[in-house]
Amino acid sequence: MQERKERQFIKKLTAKKEELIKNIQSIEDNGLRSSISNTTGELSSYDNHPADLGSETFERAKDVGLKDNERVLLDSVERALQKIADGTYGQCESCGREIAEERLEALPWATECIDCSRKMGRAKGRPLEEASLEPPFRRSFQGNKDEIMYREGKFAEEDALDLVTQYGSSDTIQDMPGTQNYEDVIP
Fold first, then answer.
1. pTM of the full predicted structure?
2. Once rounded to an integer, what is the mean pLDDT over residues 25-34?
3. Residues 69 and 144 in one domain
4. What does pLDDT average to over the chain?
5. What is the residue range of 77's domain?
6. Quick one: pLDDT at residue 163?
7. Residue 123 located in a structural domain
8. Contact of 74 with 21, CB cutoff 8 Å
């Protein structure tokens, strides 16, 4: 890789690293370092009603998730900087070919070429486990036209709820208009 391009990637990666460290520090400073009772102003985290601290617990869990995501990204950035130092930056870890410069411009911490990334399913955004699912769960709204409600060759979006609820729902008697008792619903 050209020395000038290498310096540009070092600059980009270093800036990203500083940004991630700042983000992690900010997340920690704005709540994760202090106890829930300190952030809510309550004397204890045990209250009269279990839902009173639900929002605070949710926000805390969200912050932990955000921090973990930033740490994973920071590890990737540091690995890319180490690869530059080792002279292996820009090589696909799976096939050994060179990663396209456009990909590295967009994602400087990329470790695989776009072809290998697609093969692994990461570029598509679909979970790897999906390939191992068996019917009926493997069905999709892009599959067999006989299973899907179509009008004029196009999926009828207004019928999507009916299509999904034929496999079950969480509706109870109070959700069904005009129903007075279970005998009206269950034969």
1. 0.57
2. 76
3. no
4. 76
5. 3-89
6. 75
7. no
8. yes
